Amino acid sequence: METGTSGKASSLRWKILRQAILRKPNADEQSEIGIKRITRKTKQGFNLLPCHLVDDPSHSSDVTVCYTLPIDSAPKLYLTQRMVDHAELSDFEICNKYNIDNTGLVCQWPSEEVLAYFCLSHADMFRSKRVIELGSGYGLAGLVIAAVTEASEVVISDGNPQVVDYIQHNIDANSKAFGGTRVKSMMLHWNQNEISNISSTFDLIVASDCRP
Q1: Could you give the count of Cα atoms lying within 13 Å of 155 in the half-sphere of its Cβ?
Q2: Does residue 18 lie in a domain region?
Q3: Which residue of 21, 51, 60, 195 has the lowest C-beta tally within 10 Å?
Q4: What range defines the domain where residue 201 resides?
Q5: Tally of domains within the chain
């Protein structure tokens, strides 16, 4: 009896394993798998701004992610960004040329999502203000400010010229979401540019670390 019972249990385990291996993920699971490939969210995840992949990243070094802002009548935001852990020789050449790192190019950092959510939750503080985001990476927080807070101007900056190209691409892709807010990208080195020339230009400065 014990041998028979043990055999049945073993067969059942193999059956469960086989089903798990052969089972095809549904659409939501596919999206989650894709998101895990292009983000450094912690295992628990913040999930403050729901997002999903727009395109198949399997044949490209870039992906486009659609963010759904959790407020009524908010537009969707589309961000093109580099695949996680994808690096090219030119990345290191540019870093050496400009004496910078590629932190903003590596991925969309979780702290940027936290900053974006904070700005979304405190939209009134940005209304009619001139705002600059420092070290913005792909610019999620700056784009959120531009899309929902009625700021008069938003400048999204980074010190890496490759990242600034992504920022400008994302600004262009979401231009219809900004209403009357002026939005532009800027290449800005904190320790190389004359910050005093622009420090009095803005009402608010926002930034997030690469890790929360």
Answers
A1: 16
A2: no
A3: 21
A4: 25-207
A5: 1
Quick check: helix, strand or coil at residue 53?
Answer: strand
Give yes or no for residue 196 having a pLDDT over 90.
no
Q: DSSP assignment, residue 151?
A: -
138-157 residues labelled b (16+ CB within 10 A) or e (exposed): bbbbbbbbbbbbbbebbbbb
Measured CA angle at 174 (ends 79, 123), to 5 deg: 90
**Average confidence (pLDDT) over 56-70:** 80
Residue 212 lies in a domain: no
Q: What is the pLDDT of residues 84-96, one digit of tens each?
A: 666 566 666 766 6
| Residue 175 pLDDT greater than 50, yes or no | yes
Residue 198 counted as domain residue: yes
Q: Is 37 exposed, middle or buried (0-12, 13-18, 19+ CB in 10 A)?
A: middle
- For 160-174, write each residue's pLDDT tens digit: 888 999 999 999 999
DSSP state for residue 132 in the 8-state scheme: E
0.90 surpassed by pTM: no
